[in-house]
Amino acid sequence: MHYRLSVLLLSMFVLMFPIHFARANTLAPFTSDGCSVFPDGTFEQGELWLGCCQKHDFDYWKGGTFDERLASDKALRVCVAKVGQPQIALLMLAGVRVGGTPYLPTQFRWGYGWPYPRDYGALTADELKQVELLSTNTLIRTISQK
């Protein structure tokens, strides 16, 4: 009885394994929620660092290597500091370093444009083409809405 159950479970795993990886290579269209669970700016300037967060969201949407995530997080810190908020920049850096891990099923995780779960890793040539295509479509939509 245990043998049959083991064979059944192993068979199901073998059949589902390729399906997961086939699905995991399809990038969803880019979306940004601004600064996620953080304000987009100050009370006086409500969208002061929103542009910094949107660029950061683009990096997080496409994902990539651990070093690319670290560079994106540091770029967010620099961007927010440049708009005059160095203390907020450090707070935001701490938040994204802790909350942006690809291992949590959040809407703002590293690589959120790809189906969960997705680990750190360089994008393949096919994945880079998807990023380029969807980036172009996003730019065209943004321009046409203005």
Description of the structure:
- It is a single chain.
- This protein is mostly helical and 146 residues long.
- It has one domain (29-145).
- The protein contains 5 helices and no strands.
- It has helices at 2-23, 50-62, 66-82, 86-99, 125-145.
Write a concise synopsis of the structure shown.
This protein is mainly α. It has helices at residues 2-23, 50-62, 66-82, 86-99, 125-145.
N/C terminus separation:
65 Å
Q: From the helix content, strand content and strand pairing, which structural class follows?
A: mainly alpha
Low-confidence parts: 16-23
Mean pLDDT: 86
Taken as a percent bin, the fraction of beta residues is: under 5%
As a percent range, the share of helical residues equals 55-70%
- Shape type: globular
Continuous helix count: 5
Biggest sheet architecture: none
- Written as H for each helix and E for each strand, in order along the chain, the element string is HHHHH
Radius of gyration: 19 Å
- The number of distinct structural domains comes to 1
Tell how many strands the DSSP assignment holds.
Answer: 0
What would the keywords be for this entry?
60% helix; 0% strand
